[in-house]
Amino acid sequence: MLKHNLLVILRNLKRNKSSLIINLVGLSSALACVLLIYLWVNDELNVDKFLVKDNPVYQVMMNNATDHGIATNEDTPGLLPKTLREEYPEVEKSVGVFPPAAYTFNGVISQNENKVKANWKFAGKEFFNIFRYELIYSDKIKVLNDKNAVVISDKLAEILFSSVDKAIGQSVEWDGEMVKGSFTIAGIFKSPPANSTIQFDVLFNYDLFWEKFPNFLNWYNSGPSTFVVLKEHTNVASFDNKIAGLIKSKNSESRLTLFTRPYADRYLHATYENGVQSGGRIEYVRLFSLIALFIVVIACINFMNLSTARASRRLKEIGVKKVVGANRKTLITQHMGETLLISFTSLLIAVLIVMIFLPQFNQNTGKHLTLFPDNQLIVSGLVISLLTGILAGSYPAIYLSGLNPVAIQNGKIFNKSKSSARELGIRKALVIFQFIASVVLIVSVIVIYRQMEHVQSKNLGFNRNNVISFAAEGRVKENPSAFIAELKNIAGVENASFMDGDLTGRHSGTTGVNWEGKSPDQTVDFEILGVGYDLIDMLGINVVQGRQFSREFGAENSKLIFNQAAIDAMGITDPVGKTINLWGEDKQIIGVVEDFHFESLYEDVKPFFFRFAERRPYEMLVKLQSGREKEALSNIAAFYKNYLGLAFDYKFLDDDFQEMYSAELRVATLSKYFAGLAILISCLGLFGLAAFTAEVRTKEIGIRKVMGSGVFNIVRLLSGEFTKMVIIAILISLPLSYLFLYNWLGKFASHIELEWWYFATAGLITLLIAWITVGTQTLKAALTNPVNCLKEE
User: Fold this and answer.
1) For a Cys-Cys bond, which of 263, 357, 728, 736 suits 57, CB 3.0-4.6 Å?
2) Is 438 exposed, middle or buried (CB count within 10 Å of its CB: 0-12, 13-18, 19+)?
3) What SS3 string covers 646-688?
4) 762-785: per-residue pLDDT in tens?
């Protein structure tokens, strides 16, 4: 029986080659899309998961109540890890990490003549007990006990010593932003994989952090990230209530409250609004999962339409089988077997498609995905293919197996049966659903691209053209003025300066500003950026009152420059020359700058001030002369190599800014491909329905041609109902897409407006594609010889 059914299946597939090809194209394309999205989603869902496997690790977060709402941060007081461990019995382990997990700072590690750039962190003794980073050499309990020792990655050990085995016990020199000196290598760890958000090459002892930064030995300053392991059966909500007022109990003036979040949620659920978790990358995981589901459903709808459209060619086969005793279960098994064979064949084709396009997909997503055939991937692929086959084949199998053999022999299935109208209505509804999804995707692509163009072209309040940035390293940090003086003499360099943060959100903040007339209960959260001479002028930031920092006025350490938002928040009139108190010291306001965006466009412009920074900058900035960029970069690289003995790594400030929107740009690119795929598969569905309609109305077409109807009239007649279906889909999809995109744009502080032509363009594109698809099929039917239309088969 199995052999017989297989032979019948193969004969049917061979006899209906056009339908087979369309089904294979639709299903294989959809499955390839699903496999790519599955690889991406699976990678996103597993970021950081390996670090806390079988270990309930929580990150302590901090809410800061200000006059502008609640800001949520992951930097906490330095004393917090020790206090939690000693005063709260629910805490089994705790550890501090500095800089915070979201930040990366670089330094230079050297051994004899070998010099390597590396990023680093201070970490508490429990670090390797809490996080599952693999220690290759050393005891994870004792490895971070010594202030004069470091732990380095295996990759770094290979570079410095040519072998991991030779590195233990060796002495290395470190020259970094916050630490300098000789250290002994006490341990080697396996380099963090790409799916770890905490990336580092070198770990220092946390006690060294206290020694270098004693200002963190109080409850007024925040910096490190704090992680805890809670004891089994701890009620996390109750624990959060207990620690909420901890900082206020240590500092009565504080408005800070604490809470915890699972560390595994840190990557996907990173966005907070007014102190409440409100999204993050998990939204893109859900979005692409939904797109994958839509595309599979669209492909399955196509299969159903094509299967039922070709049913008339199999009527006699079904009728004869039923007459000779074949029951419905047997027919369903045969048709489901045919569908599953096509589905698993499509899976094989899909795998080949993924292998071809995976490198490009990785480039677009910034991932390193592979099709390594692990058990999870194999099982997932088979399950997806099985479900796709069942979804696509169930309706045609049930429909065809339920046909009445007497009606089949009398030829009454498609022209007089009331159920045929119902079946046709179902197919129309399915096609409408297909095009609803397609229109939503097209509108989304248009709006996302327009928003990204807006982000890229918006005037941020400063000029980032032809400006490069690079990390301040080595002796550059000790005497940046001397380095800048030499930079300015390089051909092609227009100007140079430095800052102790950057313009993409990496800077410090404070509420410790007092001024005359300040209300006792008023709290303003100021962002701070330390800068050198010439930076404000170099970036073209508009000074609306007063002046910028200048060498002509000598030391500028006691001077500050505020933005307009800060002056407005403080309510100061005629601010230039007035004195404010910062951290207990009097400072003079020498200038006010026009508001500019120093964070992403997701954020409103906040109160902000520049302070003067003389030493130890974080980032150097160089303005290149227009038209001489290549010459200038070549000259700077040679000078940098000679000055520090290191390779010159730089980024254009414009590129640095665009990295803040890398997720959105990737979504825009992928959405374009998915929208195109959805349209392609939807058009196959229209093709199937057009084929079905033309087949059912063959005699009608023949009669109309005999009675004198022209080709155009017949095409218009057959295309009319398809046009109605697409128009219905457009009308339903436009409000849905408007609501989705309105909510998405609302996440940006600066965004485009939803114009009517975005939706009109998407609808017109969809309608034109549908007309072309249907037109080819209906034209073919209209050109058929009426003799062939009217003759009995």
Assistant:
1) 263
2) buried
3) CCCCCEEHHHHHHHHHHHHHHHHHHHHHHHHHHHHHHHHHHHH
4) 888 888 887 877 777 677 666 666
